């Protein structure tokens, strides 16, 4: 069913409250699409539809709603249904949901669950947000090294009904330590009587629960894994991160790169989201960066104001301040994004070798850009304002130096940011602008005094 | 083996040329890690090591080298080995490699291959770069709808040795049209005698070969697929895109988002890469954007120069031009990145409803930012330069209007960009700066004449 038809059906069903109809649609529609359609209804209209579903189906669908939406639906749900959710939701999604409950709600919920569920939730929910543990699901299948292929397959048939994935199976010894992995594919292709030990992949890639979750996603991408085993401090396996979760993690991280560059990330590391972030927080985070830029700008403008004498002699100098200092920031922005991008792709690291390499590459380009833009600006300045040769010299020379210097400094800033442990994308943009503004006015008026200083002497 | 040990071993082996040693390491090391280590050697030293491997192993390793490196190695390789590469490499990687050969080399290569290989290469290589087809591999396993589970498993065992993936199997009818998909997991869990038709997932998500490859990656991420079937114009299946390739596609795309915002993407859509892009191209692309900004800047500076009379009366006005017009660009940059990010995550679409929604959210924030920054600037201006009330009024009012307006315009620019079919990230940054510079000086001098105009009358 295409998008419009689905939307129409859902709207009709929400009015007619036709349970059989909705259950049927839910059975044949992918959760992502169904959630998109349901998102166009209010919570009051969505809930009755959800309650028409079997608990298992409802829980799987629920996990696909955005977190904000989940919280709204949960608040309106009868207690029975809430407990059922926690019984049937995938292990990692329900741990996240649990962490968003208030203390009161948590205390009410836990006694209603079985011990197995309670232990699982408490364990999975104990990992701080942003860690590998918080992205881990305990829904995986494990086998023993001594099993034969036939026994392993039988074990899978018996237990795998609700696992997140059985494409990769994890070989654990009796102490629950990870000994290897074996692909379902290998089990299917191998002779029945071989032992797991003889076909398993030893020394598998794994991640620790306390690592940043981005590291898990990178490992999955680098090694083309379907699922990454996660161990705790004692090397015991606690769960897995699946490749689909890895894709989502990377998507969020990369969406955040531009946000960090544009100064729209709050202190706790969360991107501002234009749709969902509370307006107060939006204001607070943005005003922080703008205020910083304003304060930096005061230094620059105070310096310019102090050049009153020279300016009053050559008013037209005022017209070129902005374009010249801007160009340093523009060029620096370009080289910074080049370096940030390569760092994000893992191509550049924080090493003197890479710094030197970048400088070698940027120097000729920045010089070339400086000369070209300086000539262009001088030509345009002459034809638009008819300024004299001496002012052209000032404008051209400053443009050249600012552009070239901006390029070099912009390329070095991401390295400097990482050196002090800050995020390159966050630090670079405001820093480039501010630094090049300040350097720019010094250079500009420096050349102005050099070429036009005689005017002051003459006047004074 | 950890990174340093591996590096040491590889270096030693490249000197001792110990074939057995290298083959053994290659067998126990993941290709990604081995390639990282080999990248530290020159091509002359890498090639002898590669030639120690069996053709199949060599081809799988080769596919992990960066494209530049692949081309260098290929050029140094004996012809026999080149043919072997094309015989054994994964179908999508070798199609890419084929497309990078010169016409001469292509003509020499094709006769040396079997017909099956030749047809496959020509077909897979025919899809333009950037399309789904160019990311497609023909290494997949298909089954017929009438097969039983037992027959399907037997078929897999017979044919699956070198398939990219058998976790998902594709159900094709006798005309090679895609009828459904079935997971290996489902085959393992189902009763042997059931037919494929009874357990397959009908109406599977698929992609057309001519679609942009990013669309394939998005489908894979949205529907949590392991492999996405790809069909041609006639609805016949030509291959699959696997989830690991989807992760790589998205990684490149997202790395490019920042590049586009920073003005470092060439006309053909390729990101500039600080390490590998030829310096001439680097210069050409960057000077293009900087020149555009310079030309826009001339309009602004010409206008400022024309305000000579007012400026000569109130020199200190010159000091505030840059901070005020900059703030419009800064605020606009923030709101633009917010909108671009949400667009990239699929949360905002090109629709009046979303435009209106964004304006509603941005208006109060932009107004609040405007007031706050205007007051801050006025205070700083007073204490740093001791300017009079009238100048403070000019500075404060312009700052307020520029900041607020910048925020609104910045939020709308990505929508405008998409409306004219341009990429929002590419268009927004230079546009914001230029537009807000121009609007900024108009507003600034507008207020200046309003509050300080009497000075001109008095003087004139």
Automatic annotation (TrEMBL), chains A, B:
Any GO CC annotation of this UniProt entry: plasma membrane
Domain CBS: 200-256
Record carries keyword Ion transport: no
InterPro entries, alphabetized: CBS_dom (IPR000644), CBS_dom_sf (IPR046342), Mg_transptr_MgtE_intracell_dom (IPR006668), MgtE_N_sf (IPR038076), MgtE_transporter (IPR006669), SLC41_membr_dom (IPR006667), SLC41_membr_dom_sf (IPR036739)
Source superkingdom: Bacteria
A GO molecular function held by the record: metal ion binding
TM stretches of this protein: 285-304, 363-383, 395-417, 438-459
Subcellular location(s) of the protein: Cell membrane; Membrane
Membrane topology type: Multi-pass membrane protein
Keywords for the protein's UniProt record, in alphabetical order: CBS domain, Cell membrane, Magnesium, Membrane, Metal-binding, Transmembrane, Transmembrane helix, Transport
Keyword Magnesium: yes
Record-linked Pfam families: CBS, MgtE, MgtE_N
Family: Belongs to the SLC41A transporter family.
Function: Acts as a magnesium transporter.
Quaternary structure, from the entry: Homodimer.
Name assigned to this protein: Magnesium transporter MgtE
Species assigned in the record: Stenotrophomonas rhizophila
């Amino acid at each position: 069913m295409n998008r419009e038809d689905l939307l129409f059906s859902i709207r009709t069903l929400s009015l007619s409250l036709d349970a059989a109809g909705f259950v049927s649609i839910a059975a044949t529609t992918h959760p992502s699409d169904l959630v998109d359609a349901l998102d166009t209804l209010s919570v009051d209209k969505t809930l009755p539809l959800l309650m028409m579903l079997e608990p298992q189906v409802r829980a799987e669908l629920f996990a696909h709603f955005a977190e904000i939406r989940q919280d709204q639906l949960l608040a309106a749900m009868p207690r029975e249904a809430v407990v059922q959710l926690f019984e049937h939701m995938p292990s990692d999604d329900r741990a996240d949901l649990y962490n968003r409950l208030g203390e009161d709600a948590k205390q009410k919920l836990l006694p209603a669950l079985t011990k197995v569920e309670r232990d699982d939730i408490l364990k999975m929910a104990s990992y701080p947000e942003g860690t590998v543990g918080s992205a881990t699901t305990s829904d995986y299948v494990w086998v023993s090294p001594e099993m034969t292929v036939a026994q392993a397959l039988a074990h899978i048939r018996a237990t795998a009904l609700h696992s997140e994935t059985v494409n990769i199976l994890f070989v654990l010894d009796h102490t629950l330590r990870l000994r290897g992995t074996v692909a379902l594919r290998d089990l299917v292709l191998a002779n029945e009587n071989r032992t797991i030990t003889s076909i398993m992949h030893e020394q598998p890639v794994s991640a620790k629960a306390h690592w940043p979750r981005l590291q898990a996603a990178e490992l999955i991408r680098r090694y083309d894994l379907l699922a990454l085993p996660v161990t705790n401090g004692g090397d015991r396996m606690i769960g897995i991160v699946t490749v689909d979760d890895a894709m989502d993690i990377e998507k969020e991280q990369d969406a955040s790169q531009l946000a960090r560059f544009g100064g729209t990330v709050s202190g706790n590391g969360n991107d501002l989201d234009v749709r969902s972030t509370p307006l107060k927080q939006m204001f607070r985070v943005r005003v922080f960066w703008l205020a910083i830029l304003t304060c930096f700008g005061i230094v620059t403008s105070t310096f310019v104001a102090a050049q009153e004498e020279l300016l009053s002699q050559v008013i037209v100098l005022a017209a070129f301040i902005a374009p010249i200092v801007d160009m340093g920031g523009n060029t620096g922005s370009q080289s910074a994004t080049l370096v940030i991008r390569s760092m994000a792709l893992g191509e550049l690291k924080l090493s003197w070798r890479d710094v030197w390499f970048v400088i070698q590459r940027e120097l000729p380009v920045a010089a070339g850009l400086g000369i070209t833009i300086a000539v262009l600006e001088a030509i345009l300045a002459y034809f638009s304002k008819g300024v004299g040769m001496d002012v052209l010299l000032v404008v051209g020379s400053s443009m050249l130096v600012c552009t070239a210097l901006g390029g070099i400094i912009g390329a070095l800033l991401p390295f400097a940011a990482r050196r002090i442990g800050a995020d390159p994308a966050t630090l670079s943009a405001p820093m480039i602008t501010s630094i090049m503004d300040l350097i720019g006015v010094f250079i500009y008026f420096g050349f102005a005094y050099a070429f036009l200083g005689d005017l002051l002497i003459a006047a004074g």
